[in-house]
Known about the structure:
By secondary structure, chain A is an alpha+beta fold. Helices cover 36% and strands 19% of the residues of chain A. Chain A is built from 15 helices and 16 strands. In chain B, strands 10-7-13-12-14-15 form a 6-stranded mixed β-sheet, with helices on both faces. Chain B has 13 helices and 17 strands.
Amino acid sequence: MATDADKLFKDFKEISVTEFFRKNKAHLGYSGAIRSLTTVIHELVTNSLDACEEAGILPEVTVELHELGEEHYRFVEKDNGPGIPLKHISSVFGKMLAGTKFHRNIQLRGQQGIGVSGVTMFSQMTTGKPLKIRTSTGTEINEIEMMVDISKNKAEIISQNAAEQSPDVAGWRGTEIEGELKDVVYKQGEKSPYEYLRRTALANPHARITFTSPDGKTTVFERSVQDIPNPPVAVLPHPKGITVDDLFNMARASDFRNTSAFLKHSFSRISSAKVHEIESMVGFPLKRRPNGLKWEECEQLVRAFKKVKFLAPSMEGLRPIGETQINNAMLSILDPQFSHCQSRSPLVHSGGVPFQIEVGIAYGGSAGRKTAEGPRAELLRFANRSPLLFDAGGCAITKAVNSIKWSRYGIKKIEEEPVTIFVNVVSTYIPYTSAGKQSIAYEQEIIEEIKKALMEIGRHFERHHARKHRAMEMENKKKALMKYSKEVAGALAKLTGKDSKELLENLKILIEKRFETGALDIEDEQDPEKPEIKKAGGGNLTDYMEGEDEGKP
Amino acid sequence: MKENLSKKEGPDVVKKLGGLGFQIAEDIERHESPKFVVPQRGLGNVSFDEVDNLLVLGDKTSTRSFLNVAHSKKFMQSILIAAKADELVSKGKTASIRELYYQLKHNIEGTKENTFEDQSESDPLIVDLEVALEVLREELHLKADDKGTVIGNIVIEDSGDRIDCSKLGRSGLAIPSIVEHYNFVKFDAQYILVIETGAMFDRLVEEKYHIKNNCIMVSTKGQAARGCRRLVNRMSNELQLPVIVFSDGDPWGYYIYSVLKAGSMALAHESKRLGTPEAKFVGMTMTDIDTYDLHSVTEKLKDVDKKRIDELLQYPWFQKKEWKKELKLMKQKGVRIEQQALASKSLEFVAEEYLPKKIEDGELLP
């Protein structure tokens, strides 16, 4: 185990961005009291899941939240991952750094957020208290309390002690992180840590996730598949999918002596010939050290990347969840009457970035969003298995889902139905709309592919569930008639002097007759005075969806 | 004086309401779909009778069936209203339409739903019931709030009391929603002037316009309510007085005139009782703007105004050349003008020059 962990951390390259965090915390997901708490949970859980998978461990993640006062909470997050070697602890939690995923272009969840060091920073900035880390790679258990020295971008160890585990019995292995947060609020709803974990569980059926909310309620999202996803293959990033920000960070962390070599060896499909082509387009020599590149120079390089023709990137970096896996997760967590999933074949967007779409639909059972009026439709957006909870309005997934005419597939008013729509966009490079990474840009290829996938599952729903669905609708209509019957019978009795009980009995017989099987397909005539207003899109998901972000960065 | 148009007596109405109840109850007993027929209301079933100059209701009907889920709730609500009206008529009580709403509003057993969520659900169903049974709202013992005022040389008998509308100070008599029981005892007037805004009415009262010009003045306070329209209709018919309307110079004011004259689409079944086809229009017109040099006190048309103008131009009862001209001129000028803009000349101008001159010269629109 220790070797696994060592290997994982050997690529660590440090970037001094502590100050960057202070100035840009809103960009990193720490904006607003609700969102900040969810971001903390996201960073911790993402870290745990990524570490487990890379080490080939079936993840067990536990999250606890305790309310200590107004906007004041304590969190405990635990995993059964490979543990963190002592020498790496301070750099993992104490420095803003670009870890493994930053430089290996693996399709990892952690493309979002700044990483777990952001949690240390946020906790420290709001409470002034250190983070407690308890971790073991299987041998000794290390307990550390630490803070960040902001000016030096260095971990400041407050206390440290180690305890031996008996080598005879299999010892504890994993990581437990505990800390306090202020200026955050736990609120149930679309943006809560609970919802984040529920969605994470849906997209990670191999993980077992336990959550204890501040009111003491514990929910377990059970594991529904036993296979650990194949470890992602490291693929060098393709130049077409690189942003200025990515390039700038990579260049600063680079040890190459000149930019030419940096470009050739840090990216896929950049040959010497292409380096020359790029050099002719930028206004500076590529002999320069890459870690001295200025932001403007990186901008010039990215502009050149856009013009140069490269070979398409390889598809092997993609790591979808899989149809069976999504379906198992939906069956286990949503317990629906009907569900169907589809994983599409990989395609490319932005002129060469591979991506793949996975969609699912679950109907009935615990599917849908809970409201006072009963379950309503919900859209679950994911990017590389990571739930997107914010900025739904401007997201390519939302746009694609809203453009589907669900009535065509036997779902009349989708917003009023107990339905969960699941969309996962898989890519080595997800084109986010902003640094908050909560919304996917309108790339036509992506939108079209999501639409095709949704239409496919829509047709499947129509074929396999529409009949049952219609029967249920009829049942609801019958109930509506039954409840009005008593009123009608009472009023008629007053008008005519007849017996209201008798009238009611007869009305019930009438209604039963009306809804006998075989009468199922009777379509109700529309009220001629008020023709139903035809809505574009035949039922729009935006109407019910979460409002916009509480605090825009 | 002509005679008051006949009004159905209580027992008659009770019989009709009961008839509806029995018919539906029989449907239920025979295990047939319970239903009743309502004439359709709205533009699709309204036509303009050019001879009588009134909007008339066509013969398109729709069927309310309880077993049609789209109708079930309305069906239930209609029966509740019918039963309540029956109770009111039998007891000899009259309720306001708001009271009726509150009397009937309650939770439906075993649900989170109410019989009525809003008065806007019960109001149109009352009209449906009127049309379906061919009875009037007041015959169902339902009334709306008072709206509108009348002042001038007319004595009205109301339930044994005599009201002299020339001796009510500056405020005049508030017009109730039901005026059927009014008897006109005596009057002395040359014509009836109907005024859109309360403020203009007050101005004319202060200038003693009705005394100096020997007329009866009615203020509609916006779109004329049923009671107000019925009173104008009755005074015009029974006292044989000409009716002259004075409204703002905008599509909304012109429509107020149109409703007073030809009836409304929503109540087309009652046009004969509510419309006054002989009514004429004195102002504000678009030509007034030029004649009296009111250019500086006009207001720009808003988008909704323009849209409304286009709608009016489509209505068959706005096809007279004078009205087409006014509406087109309004659109062309892109402005509207309020009655009170005449105050830009002087407060007395409207009472001493504008109205007397236009009426005397017969400068009226049809």
